[in-house]
Amino acid sequence: LAVGETGSIALEFEPDEAGSFLDSFYVLVPVPSGLDTVEFYVAGTAEVPVLTLTVATDAGELAENDIIDFGEVILTEDSTQVVTITNPSVLDIDLTAVQLDDLTHFSVDDSGLATTLAAGASTSFSVTYAPTVEGEHTSDLTIESSADDTSFALQLRGSSIVSSVNEFGIEAVQAFPNPVRNVFTLQLVEGLEKANFRIFDLNGKTVRNGEWPSGAPQHQFDLSDLPTGSYQLELLAEQGRLLVEIVKQ
Fold first, then answer.
1. Which of 8, 95, 113, 132 is the most exposed place for a label (fewest CB within 10 A)?
2. CA nearest to 174, candidates 229, 126, 242
3. Pick from 202, 207, 241: which is nearest to 223 by CA?
């Protein structure tokens, strides 16, 4: 090196195991009397990388055992939420399984889920709540991986309800029971002098029709012989129209 110049030496520390390491190296420096030896000591500590996953929905990041709440879903309909998994670690993580303990009301579509998640990468799967009976439903969902915590557990929760009454000029007090096995009752705020009703299936086929009892605020419908499924009750009068979705069990 010329007078006033500087130089540098690149040192690389690549441990293959965890622990503390100490070493030294020498630099030979020419001096008038020959070569002078300058010794340097180097030290480093290696830690095992922490392998972890973050899990989130559109509502935000989830912690272990958090609840994914689907809220109220109309019976025979469904609701889907997307779950995103991110690898914030410096090494790859293998995703081995996404498991549910209730396959009656909940389902998982992991067809697009990566089996190996590179450092910094994300992947996702969807969970669908499609209730088959009225009531509250829960399920455990577990994500299995090669992360330090091999299982990431979540809880799913949803509640199925029967569709509300759709009022277009005719007001109802209640429609019950729904779902129904035999007799269905529709109670109005006030009686109708002249009205007609029909009940039709999802294909629009009429399975019942007739006249609403004149002046009556309430009427019962015997549905015991109808096949299981979803139906619409339509009530037409001068005052307007009323639609009620009925689930026959």
1. 8
2. 242
3. 207
DSSP-assigned letter for residue 179: S
CA torsion through residues 74, 75, 77, 79, sign: positive
DSSP for 72-94, written as a single string: EEETT--EEEEEEEE--SSS-EE
Distance CA 145, CA 150 (A): 5
Instruction: Identify the band that residue 99 occupies on the pLDDT scale cut at 50, 70 and 90.
Output: very high
For 113, the token pair is: 């889920």
Whole-number Å distance between alpha carbons of 165 and 232:
10
Residue pair 174/189 in contact by the 8 Å Cβ criterion = no
**Is residue 184 predicted with pLDDT exceeding 80?**
yes
pTM of the model: 0.59
Note the pLDDT of residue 33. 84
| DSSP state at residue 52 | -
HSE-up of residue 86 (Cα within 13 Å, Cβ side): 9
| Residue whose pair of structure tokens reads 């399984």 in the numeric block | 97
Q: What string of DSSP letters covers 137-168?
A: EEEEEEEEESSSS-EEEEEEEEEEEPPPPEEE
Chain-centre distance of CA 123, in angstroms?
A: 14
Question: Can you read off the two tokens belonging to residue 170?
Answer: 């005719």
First-to-final CA distance of the chain: 93
H or E element in which residue 122 lies: strand 122-129
**Is 122 within 8 Å of 53 (Cβ atoms)?**
no
